[in-house]
Amino acid sequence: MSTAYDEIKTRLQGSMVALVTPMHPDGKVDYKRLSDLIDWQIEQGTHCLVAVGTTGESATLSMQEHSDVIRYFVKHVNGRVPVIAGTGANNTSEAIKLTQDAADAGADCALLVAPYYNKPPQEGLYQHYKAIAKAVNIPQMLYNVPGRTVVDIAQETVERLADIDNIVAIKDATGSVIRGEQLIKAVGDRIVVLSGDDGTALELMKVGGQGNISVTANVAPKAMSETFAAGLRGDFDAANKIHDIVKHLHRDLFLESSPIPAKYALHKMGMIDNGIRLPLVWLAEQHHATLDDALLRAKIM
């Protein structure tokens, strides 16, 4: 049975960048650089943009800044590609407020990371996501990243949540193609299954995944968009050929916690200033040469 949310499901595919939030050296959001990054990403073929996800330093923006950045993001994109707004939180009322703000701003979809730190049980996860879906009329995407949240959304919980009309997708950042394939078999006829792990995303697409929410696309948007466009066509020979040029970045952009390496790389490329917020700090000098070499090998510099 078709629903009002089926159209967005067809648009949540390909290469989706989890964009950094550019900042001045004093840590204030640099909106001029943000608009430049948005334009560059769209010009390079990125299929969807994610505002204020983990890579966008959602954990260090205030709630007001969080909503302000999403509002600016949506306005500047101006319908050119879908905007997915990171609105997750580790308490449900805060997540509802952020999600409502994103809906009011005109975001196409909300990305809701599993509640971190407080380690809710599976029933708590189900009730959390159900409450947000009921409270806010916007397409919503589950986000499972146990390496950061220390809580894992079980497949059985995803299956229950997939019955809720405005839960339209899941970003699976477990890095397990086996788990992703099991999800696709279980819920792929109801919600879109996306990868949130650059290193395994193309392999997940080969078994039915629809795309990748990417850190690497911050610095190599054209290669990533071409890779996943080829994958969507079923041309995995072409996808592999393009992907081979940048695949080492999937490792080197995690030399330290994301988005530290991505921000260093974009600064090196002249795209952003060197602003980042504590407790994150600038990339340690011992990693500079490795990441510089990775950019050269990817033909970025």
What topology, given as strand order, has the largest sheet?
A: 7-6-5-4-3-2-1-8
Gyration radius over CA: 18 Å
Roughly how much helix do the residues carry, as a percent range?
A: 40-55%
> In angstroms, what separates the terminal alpha carbons?
49 Å
Oligomer class: single chain
N-to-C order of helices and strands? HEHEHEHEHEHHEHEHEHHHHH
Low-pLDDT runs: none
Strand content: 5-15%
Structure description:
The mean pLDDT is 97. Helix 2 packs across helix 3, helix 3 packs parallel to helix 4 (92-105) and helix 13 packs across helix 14 (288-297). The protein is an alpha/beta fold. The chain has helices at 6-11, 31-43, 63-77, 92-105, 122-135, 146-149, 155-161, 177-187, 198-206, 221-233, 236-246, 249-252, 260-268, 288-297; strands spanning 14-18, 48-51, 83-86, 109-113, 140-144, 167-172, 192-195, 211-214. Helices cover 47% and strands 12% of the residues. The chain contains 14 helices and 8 strands. An 8-stranded parallel β-sheet has the order 7-6-5-4-3-2-1-8.
